[in-house]
């Protein structure tokens, strides 16, 4: 089985070819950081126009790298939401056009399902059910992944996502864009105990998340002028890690039978987050699975893989499937 995957829901344009046996035959990705940097964040209209220009050449490059034509592909999987609607439409319309022209099935993938199943692409031994911490720029959720298309949401954020908090902190501290990696780099040169910052919802019974208050505290700490950006970054990152661990530990108390603790989404690329989760898993006698960094941030291999899992389960979608800005898993 060979699946072509397309991704264009935010500011990465990507195309990949993945086999049912988990071989990533080709993957191409073009980030748009330079185009958005002057604005300090992703500008939806600029992103959508860039996807239009870049996606078709990336698909051609991926097919050339794999030395196959579209005829060799069994199905075309494309992100159909959630995300910036202009970008989602570019990928979905492209996927539909290819599916129609080559008479191949279309698989409309929920971007969150791409993240949720990506650990199974990285680790063949990862079996259902597993507890997934999905931490990205738009989402912060704890999910019990019970099977393909079977996701039980245990918790979500009541305000900002963890990645959003990283991005806003980077902006406040003038560390640049994209924010997550910039904060992580600055944090390596700072003292995580320097700045007293809150741990919102820590210890509360439901394993939900909240980061808005932490962001406000970062604004106040920066305005106070007492601490370096490096110390604030390190203290902020330590607070986020504490919250993620406390909330995940709470969720672990409420579930039975999970085979592993798994993390995915852009923030899972953060070494401090990964290290702390690995220790938590060890404490609970659970396997810990985290995809490699490039598979945590947005990419098309995870969309192709989610497509492969859905295709194997007999799930395909009609050509009139609509793009969705919001689409809870
Ligand atoms: O999954 P993703 O690529 O896109 C979404 O679906 O949102 O996640 C992007 C988010 C951004 O907020 C980015 O700042 C964050 O992931 N991120 C990181 C790191 N790399 C990316 N956050 C913390 N540390 C990192 N190393
Ligand atoms: Zn994502």
From TrEMBL:
Main location: cytoplasm
Positions of transmembrane segments: none
Cofactor: Fe(2+)
Gene3D superfamilies per record: 3.30.420.40
Reactions this protein catalyses: L-threonylcarbamoyladenylate + adenosine(37) in tRNA = N(6)-L-threonylcarbamoyladenosine(37) in tRNA + AMP + H(+)
Signal sequence range: none
The keyword Lyase is annotated on this UniProt entry: no
GO BP field: tRNA threonylcarbamoyladenosine modification
Gcp-like domain residues: 24-305
InterPro entries: ATPase_NBD, Gcp-like_dom, KAE1/TsaD, TsaD
A Pfam match: TsaD
Record bears the keyword Endoplasmic reticulum: no
EC number: 2.3.1.234
Subcellular location: Cytoplasm
SUPFAM superfamilies per the UniProt record, alphabetical: Actin-like ATPase domain (SSF53067)
Keywords tagged on the record: Acyltransferase, Cytoplasm, Iron, Metal-binding, Transferase, tRNA processing
Cofactor: how bound: Binds 1 Fe(2+) ion per subunit.
Gene Ontology molecular functions: iron ion binding; tRNA N(6)-L-threonylcarbamoyladenine synthase activity
Residue sites binding Fe cation per the record: 111, 115, 298
Its job: Required for the formation of a threonylcarbamoyl group on adenosine at position 37 (t(6)A37) in tRNAs that read codons beginning with adenine. Is involved in the transfer of the threonylcarbamoyl moiety of threonylcarbamoyl-AMP (TC-AMP) to the N6 group of A37, together with TsaE and TsaB. TsaD likely plays a direct catalytic role in this reaction.
Protein family (similarity comment): Belongs to the KAE1 / TsaD family.
Name used for this protein in its record: tRNA N6-adenosine threonylcarbamoyltransferase
Organism: Hephaestia caeni
């Amino acid at each position: 089985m060979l699946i072509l995957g397309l991704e264009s829901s935010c500011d990465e344009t990507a195309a990949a070819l993945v086999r049912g046996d988990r071989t990533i035959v080709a993957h191409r990705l073009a980030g748009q950081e330079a185009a958005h940097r002057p604005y300090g964040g992703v500008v939806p209209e600029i992103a959508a126009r860039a996807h239009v220009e870049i996606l078709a050449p990336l698909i051609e490059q991926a097919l050339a790298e794999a030395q196959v034509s579209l005829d060799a592909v069994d199905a075309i999987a494309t992100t159909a939401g959630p995300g910036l609607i202009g970008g989602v439409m570019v990928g979905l319309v492209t996927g539909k056009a290819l599916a129609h022209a080559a008479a191949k099935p279309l698989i409309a993938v929920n971007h969150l399902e791409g993240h949720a199943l990506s650990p199974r692409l990285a680790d063949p031994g990862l079996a259902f059910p597993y507890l997934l911490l999905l931490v990205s720029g738009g989402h912060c959720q704890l999910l019990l992944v019970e099977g393909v298309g079977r996701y039980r949401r245990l918790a979500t954020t009541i305000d900002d996502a963890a990645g959003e908090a990283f991005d806003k902190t980077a902006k406040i501290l003038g560390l640049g864009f994209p924010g997550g990696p910039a904060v992580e780099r600055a944090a390596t040169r700072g003292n995580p105990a320097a700045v007293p910052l809150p741990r919102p919802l820590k210890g509360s019974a439901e394993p939900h998340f909240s980061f808005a208050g932490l962001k406000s505290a970062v604004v106040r700490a920066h305005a106070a002028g007492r601490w370096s950006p490096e110390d604030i970054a390190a203290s902020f990152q330590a607070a986020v890690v504490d919250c993620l661990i406390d909330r995940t530990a709470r969720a672990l108390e409420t579930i039975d039978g999970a085979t592993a603790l798994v993390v995915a989404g852009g923030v899972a690329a953060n070494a401090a987050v990964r290290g702390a989760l690995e220790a938590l898993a060890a404490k609970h006698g659970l396997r810990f699975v985290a995809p490699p960094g490039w598979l945590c941030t947005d990419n098309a291999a995870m969309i192709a893989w989610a497509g492969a899992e859905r295709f194997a389960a007999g799930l395909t979608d009609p050509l009139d499937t609509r793009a969705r800005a919001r689409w809870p898993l």
